[in-house]
Amino acid sequence: MKVYSPRDENEASTIITEAAASGLKLAVGGANSKAALGRMVDAGARLSSIEMAGVTLYEPAELVIAAKSGTPVSELVRVLAERGQELPFEPMDYRPLLGSRGEPTIGAVVAMNISGPRRIMAGGARDSLIGVRAVNGRGEVVKSGGRVMKNVTGLDLVKLLAGSWGTLGFLTEVTFKVLPKTERMATLLWRGLDDRRAIEALSSALGSPFDITGAAHLPGADVQGARTLVRLEGFSVSIDYRLGEVRRLLKSAGAPDILEGRGAEILWQSVRDATILPDDRDRAVWRLSTAPSKGPDVAAQISRSLDAQWFYDWGGGLLWIATKPEGDAGAGIIRAATREFGGHAMLVRAPDGIRAAVDVFEPQSEAVMALTRGIKKAFDPAGILNPGRMYAGV
Fold first, then answer.
1. 92 in the same domain as 20
2. Among the four residues 23, 217, 375, 381, which has the most C-beta atoms within 10 Å?
3. Do 189 and 176 lie in a common domain?
4. How confident is the model over 203-221, as a mean pLDDT?
5. Alpha-carbon distances of 358 from 39, 282, 337, 370, rounded to whole Å
6. Per the domain annotation, does 222 fall within a domain?
7. What local confidence, expressed as pLDDT, does residue 281 receive?
8. pTM higher than 0.85, yes or no?
């Protein structure tokens, strides 16, 4: 497959304009580390942002950074760390789960609205995103937002393009609000709680005024047994106080261990990247969002019919579930659970045949699909940008 790697926005505009005129379908991406996510795209060529890299604006005093879309996430992390700052939303690295290579790019993080455990406090990528530049399916350069975060009336292109999976436009530059890097991180760890009791404890912690930045439950699927995690970040003196208060708040759950240092960082990285799941490449992996109070119900219903392994993030509101890939990899049973208890499910990893046969994203109602098709038509009339990546025919 031919790969187009424009060096700037003008080249990208020319490529897309010519593709639209000829009807050439383009698989839009960056370094291709997440090509196995979403539905398979039937395209004649790839359009990659890999040559469009570099920080274009950084104002540490204003907590603002902008970069071209092909900039490696690791480069932004490095630049920010040099000034004691960080991306607030702790983006997940999908490579361990997908077995892929390449350096994840910041444009892909925005296109897929990727985040990590800190989303419960800081939101996802779109919540820190304050500006975008992109080329739509007509070859037109569009710009929205800027250096400050503000509310506007009308269509918010910044939020619309974040999470659109490259189906509406080819991102060329993104701008974020960032935060000072935390001085200290400490994790409270309870052992032996069942799912329901663990989620009750996490909900109590998240409902407290103590600024929880991570809340996960890892059921006892390995030799370590069930572990329930509450993370606190901030100034050291504040951490000491909040540790004591959260322990008192959750005293009925028992006496927790306190984890700090590199071991705790590695544990949260494994939660972020879903490598807590068993390292079994043959299994399909699902990502489910639901109300935290319903998380144990969803997992219980699924496990009654499937050989499934799972863990909870976001206080129980996010479930990562590994299933056997036979048949539909459990799609029917998982969709039935989300319909009954509320929520939605995305198939993250599965053989190509299953990805082609089942809905990768939660099916939409006809009214919502009509709106989705209308937005796609407005941005990409010829349907050349990542066609079918999210929904068949869109």
1. yes
2. 217
3. no
4. 94
5. 9, 17, 16, 20
6. yes
7. 83
8. yes
CATH code: domain of residue 99: 3.30.465.10
Total domain count, the chain: 3
pLDDT digits (tens, 9 = 90+) for 306-339: 999 999 999 999 999 999 999 999 999 999 999 9
Q: Between 393 and 91, whose confidence is greater?
A: 91
Burial level of 81, CB count in 10 A (0-12/13-18/19+)? exposed
Last residue of a domain, one of 244, 272, 300: 272
Cα angle 182, 191, 318 (rounded to 5 degrees) comes to: 60
pLDDT at 47 over 50: yes
255 in the same domain as 329: no
Region 152-158: what's the mean pLDDT? 66
Residue-number span of the structural domain to which 343 is assigned = 284-357
d(CA 197, CA 106): 37
- The C-alpha atoms of residue 361 and residue 346 are separated, in whole angstroms, by 5
| Contacting residues for 89 by C-beta, under 8 A, at least 6 apart | 114, 115, 116, 118, 119, 122, 123, 124, 125, 127, 128
- Give the number of residues written for the chain: 394
Are residue 205 and residue 256 in the same domain, yes or no?
A: yes
Domain assignment present for residue 369? The answer is: no
Instruction: Supply 155's token pair.
Output: 């269509």
Instruction: Name which of 154-163, 164-173, 233-242, 310-319 the model is least confident about.
Output: 154-163
CATH code of the domain containing 224: 3.30.70.2190
Output the pLDDT for position 77.
Answer: 97
Going by C-alpha positions, the residue among 132, 105, 115 that lies closest to residue 49 is 105
Give me 93's structure tokens: 């690295």
Which residue has better confidence, 366 or 278?
A: 366
- pLDDT-derived band at 153 (thresholds 50, 70, 90) equals very low
Same domain, yes or no, for 54 and 176?
A: yes
Q: Domain check: are 128 and 53 in the same one?
A: yes
Task: With a cut of 60, say whether residue 154 has pLDDT above it.
Answer: no
